[in-house]
Design the sequence.
């Protein structure tokens, strides 16, 4: 007879229920632990669900949940961006677009803040804080959401616009409500934390001010840590295992002093920048340059048009009348009826019978919007100047000399005008044109290299998808050289190594490198983009994925090397302190004091500041919420912006370097590690400007908002981390696979 489970259940339902209950209890209690043992959920071998972090109170955050956090965050930002466009482009109020733009500033700033809060580590922190806030009783509702939307929109939000924004962003009302409730919960928690960072002493304000406004210069000698590694003994197995366990979940970062054993993604790639090489510059003929000049002089090489006669001066202003050919100089206030002051130029004359008639000048033969060339190269004739002066005079002030000058000006109008004064001379712009034409040739040549690579990438993909061994990539360096280009090959390395290549000298290029290392590359596929230096052609030739060692044996040699380096830091610091004490007993400079030490090179620096806004003004930086960056320490002769590439000795100085240097007085000597603690610097402060008195006067006059970001961020970050650590301790939170924030870039 066939087995019927439902009939069996009816006859033995008591036993079935007891068995099912027992199975449920076993599954609930023991199944997660069993899955962990076989590698499911802890990031172990064979794991399919990577656990990012866990909290004793709130459970785990897996890789899938982190992806959901990012999707929800992006969905909220997308809705607000759509809402902003809808409110800004409201056809019902088309005449007040500028006013609406000002009203919507809070919404615009809110979107920017959301865009800055998207890294995996930040999103996990937001999850932890919002979970803790909800547990503590912080429960916003739709009224709070409605109030937030009204504030951000300046009360411009209507039901129709709200529904359209939901439809265009693909969100439901309920989904948006939950997203904004979570965001409000985070912000309310953050506001409670922020209240504790407002009390800053005047001494601290003075310190922050100096970081942006005091310029210093130093001499520096460097003691490499690597010189002392061989003096360190071998670690014991116990020491090495403890060392590995403490750092196995951290990424190796050559720019950090922290130890990490996770090997980051590595790429090998080649690139060409379409820049005017010497070969291309030499290939441009004088005939090509002259033809370009004649064709484009009206667009590119016209002199700046500035009036020979400036506007009359308002009371209290600094405007003056410039010197005219054959005339004196003078100033003139704004002319008013009954109070007209004629500039100190020779007055024009009026002919017989015209004493009672205003002088009229001949109409200009130039086109509307143009002026005639003047004697000094400006686009205005002396006759035009006379015309403008006469217009400021009363009828009874016109004399015979005015008429004579007018007739003279009329006769000069018939003389052919030399239009060459309108343009910059050919010899002055010749080399500029040569570079422009060479750059165009470089871009054209780049397209020929791109064709060659595109052909090979097609062959490579065809073999790859068919499971066949693709042919080796052709060597295009000779072909590029024939075209006047330089092909650069970058060997296998991580993002930090790539940032030391010549490609990374431009901001756009650095951002492209970060994106490239954060995505799964497709080998030999052409990427062309416009960088700060010029058009770039790039392709990846090799890829090593991130390696997360589970056992010491996988990275034992590297672990031994890193352990020795950490121990060698103590010996290097001790040697540097001995050298610093030696230098302190001498009145000589470091160059003179260590002149007989061939193993201890010394360099001097250009003046630098602790923090810098770069090319931005403090007002623009504060307005855009851009904090100041660490100042650039450039060795003498190194171009601005190139210190990380061209410095010989001061490599990656870091924040500790700035702290130590700014604690010194002129002539004092100290010691400090660089950021990755691979070098110990002996530094002597050689100059400080402006003087202390001048700095103090500036400090008293400068409002705090112009300088407080130089240090407030550091205080804020320290307090923020302490706040998070307190929440982590309360909730039993710990990182299991902490995401890489890539803060360095």
Sequence:
């Amino acid at each position: 007879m066939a087995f019927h489970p439902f009939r069996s259940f009816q006859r033995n339902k008591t036993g079935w229920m007891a068995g099912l209950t027992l199975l449920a209890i076993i599954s609930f209690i023991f199944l997660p632990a069993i899955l962990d043992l076989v590698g499911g959920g802890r990031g172990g071998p064979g794991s399919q669900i990577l656990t990012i972090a866990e909290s004793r109170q709130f459970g785990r955050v897996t890789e899938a949940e982190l992806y959901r956090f990012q999707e929800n965050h992006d969905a909220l930002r997308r809705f607000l961006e759509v809402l902003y466009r809808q409110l800004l482009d409201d056809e019902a109020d088309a005449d007040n677009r500028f006013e609406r733009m000002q009203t919507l500033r809070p919404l615009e700033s809110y979107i920017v803040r959301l865009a800055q809060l998207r890294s995996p580590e930040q999103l996990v922190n937001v999850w932890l804080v919002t979970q803790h806030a909800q547990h503590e009783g912080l429960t916003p509702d739709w009224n709070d959401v409605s109030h937030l939307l009204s504030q951000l929109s300046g009360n411009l939000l209507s039901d129709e616009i709200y529904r359209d924004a939901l439809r265009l962003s693909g969100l439901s009302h309920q989904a948006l409500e939950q997203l904004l409730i979570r965001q409000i919960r985070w912000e309310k928690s953050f506001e409670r934390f922020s209240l504790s960072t407002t009390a800053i002493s005047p001494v601290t304000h003075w310190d922050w001010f100096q970081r942006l406004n005091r310029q210093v210069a130093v001499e520096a000698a460097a003691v490499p840590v690597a010189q002392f590694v061989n003096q360190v003994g071998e670690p014991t197995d116990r020491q090495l295992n403890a060392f590995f366990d403490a750092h196995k979940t951290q990424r190796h970062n050559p720019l950090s002093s922290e130890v990490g054993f996770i090997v980051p993604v590595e790429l090998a790639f080649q690139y060409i920048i379409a820049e005017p090489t010497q070969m291309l510059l030499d290939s441009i003929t004088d005939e090509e340059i002259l033809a370009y000049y004649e064709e484009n002089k009206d667009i590119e090489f016209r002199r700046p048009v500035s009036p020979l006669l400036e506007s009359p001066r308002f009371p209290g202003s600094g405007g003056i009348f410039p010197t005219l050919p054959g005339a004196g100089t003078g100033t003139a206030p704004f002319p008013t009826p009954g109070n007209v002051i004629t500039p100190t130029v020779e007055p024009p004359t009026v002919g017989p019978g015209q004493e009672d008639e205003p002088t009229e000048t001949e109409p200009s033969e130039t086109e509307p919007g143009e002026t005639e060339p003047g004697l000094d190269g400006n686009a205005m004739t002396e006759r035009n100047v006379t015309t403008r002066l006469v217009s400021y005079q009363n009828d009874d002030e016109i004399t015979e000399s005015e008429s004579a000058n007018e007739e003279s000006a009329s006769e000069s109008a018939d003389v052919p005008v030399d239009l060459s004064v309108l343009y910059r001379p050919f010899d002055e712009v010749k080399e500029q044109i040569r570079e422009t034409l060479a750059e165009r040739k470089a871009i054209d040549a780049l397209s020929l290299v791109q064709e060659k690579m595109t052909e090979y990438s097609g062959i490579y993909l065809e073999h790859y998808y068919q499971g066949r061994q693709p042919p080796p990539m052709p060597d295009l360096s000779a072909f590029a050289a024939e075209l006047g280009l330089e092909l650069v090959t970058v060997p296998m390395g991580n993002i930090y190594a790539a940032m030391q290549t010549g490609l990374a000298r431009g901001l756009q290029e650095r951002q492209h490198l970060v994106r490239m290392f954060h995505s799964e590359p497709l080998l030999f596929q052409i990427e062309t983009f416009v960088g700060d230096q010029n058009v770039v052609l790039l392709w990846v030739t090799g890829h090593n994925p991130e390696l997360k060692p589970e056992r010491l044996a996988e990275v034992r040699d590297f672990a031994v090397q890193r352990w020795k380096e950490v121990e060698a830091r103590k010996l290097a610091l001790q040697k540097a302190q001995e050298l610093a004490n030696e230098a302190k007993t001498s009145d000589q400079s470091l160059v003179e004091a260590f002149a007989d030490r061939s193993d201890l090179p010394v360099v001097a620096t250009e003046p630098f500041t602790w923090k810098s806004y770069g090319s931005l003004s403090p007002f623009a930086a504060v307005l855009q919420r851009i904090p100041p960056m660490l100042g650039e320490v450039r060795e003498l002769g190194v171009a601005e912006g190139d210190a990380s590439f061209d410095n010989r000795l001061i490599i990656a100085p870091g924040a500790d370097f700035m702290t130590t240097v700014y604690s010194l007085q002129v002539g004092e000597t100290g010691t400090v590690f660089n950021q990755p603690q691979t070098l110990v610097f002996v530094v002597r402060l050689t100059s400080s400007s402006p003087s202390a008195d001048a700095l103090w006067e500036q400090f008293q006059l400068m409002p705090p908002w112009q300088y407080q970001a130089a240090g407030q961020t550091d205080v804020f970050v320290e307090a923020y981390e302490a706040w998070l650590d307190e929440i982590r301790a309360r909730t039993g939170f710990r990182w299991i696979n902490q995401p890489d924030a890539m803060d360095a870039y």
Observations:
- The chain has a mean pLDDT of 79.
- DSSP finds 26 helices and 13 strands in the chain.
- Residues 209 and 707 are 5 Å apart (CA to CA).
